[in-house]
């Protein structure tokens, strides 16, 4: 049985974002149900050992709010977190690692390109290699994360390349892992070896290819990039000069958007994740939310647990 907890559903900055006065952030300051922390999930096959997919800057708050991830009763130092799988090197995916620096052992699983970013930033050396192993993962090569004692976890993860960009803070700079090849943005197929049940995680995806459609068809559950409703939404709101595509994210709506592109596929549950605070689908009474829901999509609340 796979257990999945949505630790956070928001894009970088969260909802509300510290410096944002947009209508949704303003409303979220007085409406707790609208608030959301930055995107990450936790998953477990045995209910005892957990893996995070991405470590958001809100990780500390997310761990406090998630009893499954609290230290075991009676232990002076303990964490149920056995590993962190990184799908990209953005700040909202890696900064939470710095909150895991107090000596508990775990493994970071990431593509060489993302590991090279961590290696090039000496602040991440605070996670000493003695306690925190780094394991390179490759596109199209399934791996099984380990339990702390080296035993297999019973979880099989298949990373694969999806259209995307490298981290925005590397724009115009030399990538520490080289500028060639894929690996900056991975999607994951995560399965329980015992039951064969599985789901997909794609918190960043710039476009839906035919290959991606055939992967996702038949999946019991997907988490999919829901950053913006419209590609030009940040520009239209006067918040930024960037389009969704310019940031490596597909829009929810429109002809080439996620809703239209994945319509007609056989997918059990469709969840948007990594939702920016500018996205009107966050508002439960908005026309955009109703359109997303009519198309079978859900906007998960932080803390939602799903069992597969
Ligand atoms: Zn805002």
Provide an overview of this structure.
Strands 6-5-4-3-2-1-13 form a 7-stranded mixed β-sheet. Strands 7-8-9-10-11-12 form a 6-stranded mixed β-sheet. It contains 8 helices and 13 strands. With 308 residues, the protein is an alpha/beta fold. A hairpin with a 5-residue loop joins strand 8 and strand 9. The relative contact order is 0.17. The chain binds zinc ion (ZN).
Characteristic terms for this protein:
308 residues, alpha/beta, 6-stranded mixed beta sheet, 8 helices, 17% helix, globular, binds zinc ion
Outline the secondary-structure elements:
Blueprint: E1 3-8, H1 23-30, E2 40-44, E3 50-53, H2 59-64, E4 81-85, H3 91-94, E5 106-111, H4 112-120, E6 132-137, E7 155-161, E8 186-192, E9 198-202, H5 210-216, E10 221-225, H6 233-236, H7 258-262, E11 269-273, H8 287-294, E12 297-298, E13 305-307
Parallel strand pairs: 3-4, 4-5, 5-6, 9-10, 10-11, 11-12
Antiparallel strand pairs: 1-2, 1-13, 2-3, 7-8, 8-9
This protein binds zinc ion.
Zinc ion is lined by residues 17, 20, 22, 24-25, 277-278.
